[in-house]
Amino acid sequence: MKTNKIFTSKKENSWKKKGATFNFIDLFAGIGGFRVALESHGGNCVFTSEWDKNSQETYFENFGEFPDGDITKISENDIPKHNVLCAGFPCQAFSISGKRKGFEDTRGTLFFDVARIVKKTKPEILFLENVKNFTKHDNGNTLEVVKKTLEKLGYDHYSKVLRSSDYGVPQARERIYIIGFRSDLKIKNFDFPEPTKDIIVVEDILENEKSLNHPYIERSDIVITKSVHQPINPRKPLQIGKINKGGQGERIYSTKGAGITLSAYGGGAASKTGAYYIDGKIRKLTPRECARMQGFPEDYVISENKNICYKQFGDSVSVPVLQLIFKQILKAYPHLN
Q1: Quick one: 48 and 180 in the same domain?
Q2: Are residues 112 and 181 in the same domain?
Q3: How far is C-alpha 99 from the geometric centre of its chain's CA atoms?
Q4: 90 with 162, same domain?
């Protein structure tokens, strides 16, 4: 396995509260991808919210803290002072009939909870993440309301869709990242990171086959349609076959390119991870391989329940992408460090 040069060990990069240079909060935290990324830059997490019980348990196993639950039931007055707010909030449509009022238009959605906390605490930095389709959600109105809300709350903002396989992990996962700087900071020179030169493909993150206790997919309707060769663009997936009719969860990919986006849901013989041609056989990725596909450190503790793992990593974030974006945030606003 090729070692992830961006992040290799949670323990090696952890920061004690005493030595932290900035405080951050982790909303809709999942299993702590944002926390891993920001702690590697010297941050101290002072508040976490995550409602899913399984994710709460995994978070506790790794960080020794049990997240607060449903953010809709937590008062903004109870949120500790912080410099950075992180949130991978769910994608929801807003009610935006008539005049768009920004903050008021977000009521009834989970973004409203982000907005009310920002309105009360006024952190210097906002670090938000969502699915690529958020840009087109409700014909683009959803993103427009988010931007208008940030402006009314007093933030300059920058947004861009980035592909994880351009930043040190073998997964063609596309997500929109929204960075907000409090307007009084007068940050006018923020740039998202350029793609890294190093290219990591699926075969670089595979576990030793002899150590696997993982069922292969053995069916009579498996068809290999292309040779397993180096793809023209290894940052993209290369489909080389199919199972059954080749629907979602039934496509077979080469390990010499990037993997498909991990998913928390979906069916098919290779649901949630996709199927890969490995040593002449077809199989899904293992939970540890999914952790590597998201750039989590090797000592990150994962659930013993395979299905829980697949859902958690499908719902999570690509740690190296967050790390590189935050490096750019520190470049634009070095006072945070």
Answers
A1: yes
A2: yes
A3: 33
A4: yes
* Same domain as 277, residue 153: no
Tell me whether strands 275-278 and 281-283 are parallel, antiparallel or unpaired. antiparallel
Q: What SS3 state is found at 183? A: helix
Give residue 154's Cα distance to chain centre.
26
Q: Indicate the pTM of the whole model.
A: 0.91
The number of distinct structural domains making up the chain is 2
Separation CA 86–CA 59 (nearest Å): 16
| 234: amino acid identity, one letter | P
Domain assignment present for residue 331? The answer is yes
Numbers of helices and strands, H then E, in the chain: 8, 11
The DSSP code sequence of 15-75 is --GGG-SEEEEEES-TTTHHHHHHHTTTEEEEEEB---HHHHHHHHHHHS-PPB--GGGS-
* Beta-bridge mates of residue 275: 252
Co-location of 235 and 160 in the same domain: no
Options 86, 91, 290, 309, the catalytic residue: 91
Q: pLDDT by residue for the chain (337 residues), tens digit each?
A: 444 444 445 544 443 445 568 999 999 999 999 999 999 999 999 999 999 999 999 999 999 999 999 999 999 999 999 999 999 988 777 665 445 566 676 777 899 999 999 999 999 999 999 999 888 888 888 899 899 999 999 999 999 999 999 999 999 999 999 999 999 999 989 999 999 999 999 999 999 877 666 668 999 999 998 876 667 899 999 999 999 999 989 999 999 999 999 999 888 999 999 999 998 899 999 999 999 999 999 999 999 999 999 999 999 999 999 999 999 999 999 998 7
- Which range marks the domain in which residue 276 is found? 202-313
The residue whose two tokens read 């470049």 is 331
CATH number of the CATH domain containing 283: 3.90.120.10
Would 5 be classed as within a structural domain?
no
Could you tell me if residue 158 is inside a domain? yes
Active site residue 45: no
In this structure, is residue 4 part of a structural domain?
A: no
* Pair 152, 76 in one domain: yes
Domain harbouring 24, CATH code: 3.40.50.150
